[in-house]
Amino acid sequence: MRGVIMVGPGEVTVGDREDPTIVDPTDAVIRLAATCICGSDLWPYRGVEPVDHTAMGHEYVGVVEEVGSEVKTVAPGDFVVGSFVISCGECPICREGYPSKCVNFEFVSATIGTQAEKARIPYADGTLVKTPGRPDPDLIPSLLAASDVLGTGWFAADAARVGPGKTVAVVGDGAVGLMGVLAAERMGAERIIVMSRHPERQRLAREYGATDVVEERGDEGVAKIMELTGGLGAHSVIEAVGTQESFRQAIGACRPGGHIGFVGVAHDGVTLPMDQVFFAEVHLFGGPAPVRRYLPDLIDLIWKREIDPGKVFDLALPLERAAEGYAAMDERRATKVMLTL
Amino acid sequence: MRGVIMVGPGEVTVGDREDPTIVDPTDAVIRLAATCICGSDLWPYRGVEPVDHTAMGHEYVGVVEEVGSEVKTVAPGDFVVGSFVISCGECPICREGYPSKCVNFEFVSATIGTQAEKARIPYADGTLVKTPGRPDPDLIPSLLAASDVLGTGWFAADAARVGPGKTVAVVGDGAVGLMGVLAAERMGAERIIVMSRHPERQRLAREYGATDVVEERGDEGVAKIMELTGGLGAHSVIEAVGTQESFRQAIGACRPGGHIGFVGVAHDGVTLPMDQVFFAEVHLFGGPAPVRRYLPDLIDLIWKREIDPGKVFDLALPLERAAEGYAAMDERRATKVMLTL
User: B260: which of A32, A338, B287, B297 is 20 to 30 A away, CA to CA?
Assistant: First the structure.
């Protein structure tokens, strides 16, 4: 089969990879309908994370081709959406709602690579969710978004305890930040302040429910949010970047007793100054999103056309042209690139 | 009046200070019945924080002598317990339950100094809570504990979402850690693991409800807690130290999706690696405890003799002998020292 391979930093090719097959009785093999490029794929692309002829991709929707003997909830022919983390669905951690920390977890990006024609998905029952039927083609981007960015933005809003009457600040206007705006709107937030200086992303943020845009950054951005919140700070803050600076902004923008949901992948060297956190007295929660927990509800909302997260894809390319997609995201010409099959 | 003054690191005296008077109409002046020395008082004592002829103390119980014209809930003659943070009780942050981050907050330690015969308490209605009557003398230590260490340990357990059926790990066997054990027991924890290698503190921890003691520290201590929790970690972790090492232990001991309540005062330079926090996927919440919120319930439990936090005081000295109390705590000969008046 054909699949995206990152040879080294900045060097993306599409080449031949071995066809996946059922290995364990809990596996499924799916034929992808669409996949995409994640902001986190840019870390190795930019040389920040090691990469060497790596099979790329962790977001995916597609049709089940084959299942192992123990798979119960999906069958050949089903259209499925899967989480970017493999989870067994049965361990205590899965049952407590944290499948992304399943005791049997695997990152799809590390071991599978779904920027390809097919993928083997271990623990199919615990990882995949089937849609009510074959989706109309225009629903594919939204279902694909649920696989990671929507599920991640949703988790961030949930972790930040967004709810009716609350003011939410969103740090980061990438795909996940925009999905955080959408989630906050659905969860009933009264006011949604997005930090962005990118006109196109501001526009989409407003379409998804943002009520205010703050273009200032750093301490000035925090001061602006304090000004907008009567000097108290936001009740809920979504951190969707993962840098020292973005965490500083998130803590500074949150009111005492408020909640920060962080989903920007923090890299080595980013530290949290605990004296600042201590005296800020804010709740912090985040990490790899337990997308699988949210998938049934998210698929339902998409199926009923109540949300349209697929708009976050502003460029679609055939899989064979993946290299162009990486370059477009790296140069910020695209927010998120869908790869079609 | 007489009061404790820290002249410089390691140098504690009791000298004459000006008698407090009503300044603002929301003030009360109280005559102290008892006060005590806090673990945090050891920071300047050890030269870690600056100190220069500083009036010490922030924990207090006593009898109201005089109130300003706007004070409504306490009156001369009332016996009162107060929080170590002054709070107005009326701002949005107080109303949301975080009086220790009141927009009008003052740390009692910074501006008042209750290791003295009397103290002026601003925002008396928002800071003090009166007891149902004059307490029996044997209740005084427990009421005094409510002013800070009990309220702080209670907050830590609350922040760590302790509840029925849960396993709780307590990092730190000082007064606050021990109060965390007491709180966890009252909140219905199924299992309470305390990290301690101090026989006397282990004994009191068990008396307060600890079911397991882990003497190992660092990575070995974490490994032991993992072993005791089936490899998953504790649902709730109380961090009551405030050092780099104790935070590392707390994160390591907490299961994915679990909650860490941290109340050890984190000093400058204590930082958490965000990549570790991110991939641990644990809730973090802490800071200066909103003691005032808990005081009515804690006073009620003490009054009914359902809890006995006063046992945490293992040395009582007259105020005039405060210097001996500081030395005893510094040398770990005493866990917590009460000063009587």
Answer: B297
Complex ipTM over 0.90: yes
Answer whether CATH 3.90.180.10 is correct for domain B2-148+290-340: yes
pLDDT at B266: 83
Mean per-residue pLDDT, A235-239: 98
CATH code given to domain B153-286? 3.40.50.720
Task: Report whether A167 contacts A234 (CB < 8 A).
Answer: yes
Comparing CA positions, the residue from A309, A244, A254, A295 lying closest to residue A127 is A295
Q: Is A262 helix (H, G, I), strand (E, B) or coil?
A: strand
Nearest to B267 among A262, A271, A275 (CB): A275
Confidence of residue B137 (pLDDT cuts 50, 70, 90): very high
**Can A2-148+290-340 and A153-286 be said to share one CATH topology?**
no
Task: Tell me the C-alpha distance between A186 and A179, whole Å.
Answer: 11
Residue B274: list chain A partners with CB under 8 A: 242, 247, 266, 270-272
pLDDT (tens digit per residue) in B42-86? 999 999 889 999 999 999 999 999 999 999 999 999 999 999 999
Task: Show me where the domains of chain A are located.
Answer: 2-148+290-340, 153-286
Of residues B220, B190, B193, the one with CA closest to residue B205: B193
CA gyration radius for chain A? 19
User: Is the Cβ of A132 closer than 8 Å to some Cβ of chain B?
Assistant: no
Whether the predicted pLDDT of B267 surpasses 90: no
